[in-house]
Amino acid sequence: MKVRQPAVAGSFYPGSREGLRKEVENLLGSVDLPLISGRILGGMAPHAGYMFSGKAQAYLYKALEPISFDTAVIIASSHYAFYRGASVYPEGAYLTPLGEVEVAEEITKKLLDYPEFNYVPSAHQREHSIEVQLPFLQVIKGNVKIVPIVVSEFDLELTERLGKAIHEVTAGREDVIFIASSDLSHYPPYEIAKKVDNEILKMIVSLDPQRLHESAVLLRRERGVSTAICGEGAVLTLLYCLLEKGVKEGKLLIYYNSGDVEKFMREEVVGYGAVIFLS
Predict the structure, then answer these.
(1) Residue 235 backbone class (left: φ over 0; alpha: ψ -120 to 50; beta: rest)
(2) What is the pLDDT of residues 35-85, one digit of tens each?
């Protein structure tokens, strides 16, 4: 069986089984969720080291904990490999210190029938943005299966096709949850980051992929921010998928940036937010 080995265990999160489980449980235990009404279809969580983004991730997974699902489609954006479209890990499992997470092959094989989806091994080998979500899923759901998708070079039309394909292969399945892995702005000063991130989050919860994309382009130009949203392709794909599934509301659970974690490091920060999407 093909098993994808962990790339960031011991750096982004604890490398031991006991240490990792304890940290995830502590993060989940510190969450104070707002009132949530409606059926949760999916969400967005960041993908930095747990010291920085673990709190925001915990908010999403605490919201998902009471829900009945056994498969998570995780859509991430590539940091290392460059290709057009999306790479889906086809079979086997992802490994973390908490054990193996099985790939939902009945879904991945269907996705690979679409021309927008391929399997690019280098897209998964070093990529941390899916890996860091898995320990949270393992703690809240145990034997959950995953559909690991990594989006690289994209345009708006392509992400729409990706999202609709994901919807089609999961149509009628109420046991599947959909997650986009994305940080927000990268490396502006603290106050600029808050303004950029608030604008991006406003577009995300408005459920309008085109306005989100246009805002990201505009903010990069007007604010001089190299990255307005790290996982734009992943979030656009998720939104298009959930629009097909009847999403009605996006709700922000928490927002902060790395300057709130390390207050003496505010010249260059990274933004983190957790969002849920409801029908």
Answers:
(1) alpha
(2) 898 999 999 999 999 999 999 999 999 999 999 999 999 999 999 999 999
- Rounded to an integer, what is the distance from CA 60 to the centroid of its chain? 10
* Domains present along the chain, CATH in parentheses: 3-7+36-278 (3.40.830.10)
Alpha carbon distance 153, 277 (integer Å): 25
Q: Are strands 249-257 and 86-88 parallel, antiparallel or unpaired?
A: unpaired
Q: What angle, 0 to 180 degrees and rounded to 10, lies between the N-to-C axes of helices 209-223 and 232-244?
A: 160
Predicted structure pTM score: 0.97
Strand ranges inside 120-270, DSSP E: 145-151, 176-181, 249-257
**Separation CA 44–CA 212 (nearest Å):** 14
H or E, element range at 101: strand 99-102
Residue 265 to residue 244: CA distance in whole angstroms: 41
Q: What is the residue type of 115? A: P
